[in-house]
Design a protein that fits this description.
With about 450 residues, the chain is mainly α. Helices cover about 80% and strands about 0% of the residues. Helix 3 runs antiparallel to helix 4, helix 4 packs antiparallel against helix 6 and helix 14 runs antiparallel to helix 15.
């Protein structure tokens, strides 16, 4: 059966607009990340290698450090003014920050002010991308029915990686043909502006619109006491569970989200530094990262397609178990890697088996309350990225100095255990949900 055959015209249009928007936003976000080997030299002072590594880690982390504050802002907007308006706002923010970066003078021209302005722009982009991808995932989870929901929401992650691929292609072209880097950022800002305009065609999600309608009906009740009682009943129905239940699910969702930042940093930044130590130029590192991202894109496409036939939690569990085997051998392989091909194979296995939450995101979001879904999802996404990127980027500098490649285990092993525990938690919730639905059907019959 065709995946899209059961979808309405409005649903297909929404899927297209959200995927294109996510693609464009992540193109802008990742453009700097993959051109950092060149741009950091323009916007940060030249120092000794150790300090340079710390400055590079700071520039990388600046993209994610304000995401928790952005999660509070966009979570509130998404849960109060709607999913549609929020994703439009995030795209506009991405466009504005790209325009500033395209016109920003370098460190040689205005000194340390250039570094601060660039860092602020990266923070704004990080915050905007948070609202973007979470908004798109929540929107489609509330719009598409299962099982089509699983691969369609997973395609949002595919679109973000496709945007990263395009950013790498542009970065590769820049280094190969010596293009003006400002033109690249002007292209990014124009693309984001087009995306924000296109998204005005979106409609609000049925679940959120229905929830707002039901809450609004309460205000028309003449008896205020009865209105408060009715509101409490409806709210409890919408929440359909205890607060502690959702907090527990949000905690395990957070643990799930902690794994991918480590895999990303290891695959692209840590291994990128290994490539430079093997004598690779910035251009060669970018070219190899492009090949790794293509492997990641192919892997995500495969698991997205597979999720239409196999439950997403089973896919995640199998991937995590294979990754655990890979993790046990990883330090040994790294210490004996003497060529770019060997490093590429390690990178390719890392992104293919990476402990990512895709394609299980709709399962996790379904177990969060509608009234707070955007906020819960934004906060878990933001804190996991901000925390783990800081721990990983700064921590690995010292851990690998002290323990060599074996220091990777200090961050990877706890993350893997937390990932498997979280998958197990949501498996229990899914089993209880299926059991309850079956009992209700039998009772109704």
């Amino acid at each position: 059966m065709n995946l899209f055959s059961s979808l309405t015209k409005n649903q297909r249009e929404s899927i297209g607009l959200l995927q294109i928007g996510t693609f464009l936003e992540y193109f802008d976000l990742m453009l700097y990340v993959h051109m950092a080997v060149f741009l950091n030299e323009l916007f940060f002072p030249k120092t000794d290698p150790h300090t340079a590594a710390l400055l590079s880690a700071f520039a990388f982390c600046s993209t994610f450090v304000l995401r928790p504050f952005g999660a509070l802002i966009f979570g509130y907007l998404g849960d109060h003014i709607g999913r549609k308006s929020t994703v439009i706002i995030t795209t506009m923010l991405m466009s504005l920050s790209s325009i500033v970066m395209a016109n920003l003078p370098t460190y040689a021209q205005i000194g340390i002010t250039a570094a601060w302005i660039m860092t602020i722009c990266r923070m704004v982009q990080g915050v905007a991308s948070l609202g973007e991808i979470v908004g798109a995932e929540v929107y489609l989870t509330e719009t598409i029915e299962k099982p089509a929901r699983y691969p369609i929401v997973a395609l949002i992650t595919v679109a973000s990686v496709a945007g990263t691929v395009m950013a790498l292609i542009i970065a590769s072209a820049f280094t190969s043909f010596k293009m003006d880097w400002r033109i690249v950022f002007w292209i990014g800002s124009g693309i984001a502006a087009v995306g924000s305009i296109a998204r005005t065609r979106l409609r609000e999600t049925p679940e959120f619109a229905d929830m707002k309608r039901r809450i609004k009906e309460i205000t028309s009740i003449e008896d205020k006491i009865e209105a408060l009682k009715a509101k409490k009943i409806i709210r409890s129905t919408i929440l359909s569970g205890h607060k502690s239940h959702y907090q527990k699910s949000a905690f395990f969702f957070f643990l799930l989200q902690c794994s991918w930042p480590i895999c990303f940093y290891f695959s692209y930044v840590y291994c990128g530094n290994i490539l430079k130590s093997l004598g690779c130029t910035a251009e060669q590192v970018i070219h190899q990262n492009l090949a790794v991202t293509l492997v990641q894109l192919a892997s995500l496409c495969f698991v997205s397609y597979l999720s239409y036939q196999v439950h997403p939690l089973k896919i995640l569990k199998v991937k995590a178990l294979f990754f655990l085997i890979f993790l046990m051998l990883m330090p040994f392989w790294l210490m004996h890697a003497q060529s770019t091909l060997q490093v590429f194979l390690i990178q390719a296995l890392s992104v293919s088996l990476a402990m990512d939450s895709t394609p299980g995101i709709p399962v996790f979001l379904e177990h969060l309350p509608i009234l707070k879904r955007y906020t819960y999802a934004s906060l878990t996404y933001a804190f996991s990225r901000a925390g783990m990127y800081i721990v990983t980027s700064f921590g690995l500098i010292y851990l690998t100095d002290w323990f060599g490649a074996w220091g990777l285990w200090v961050v990877f092993i706890p993350a893997t255990i937390g990932f498997l525990m979280s998958v197990r938690h949501f498996e229990k919730l899914e089993f209880n949900h299926t059991k309850t639905s079956f009992v209700k059907l039998r009772t109704a019959a």
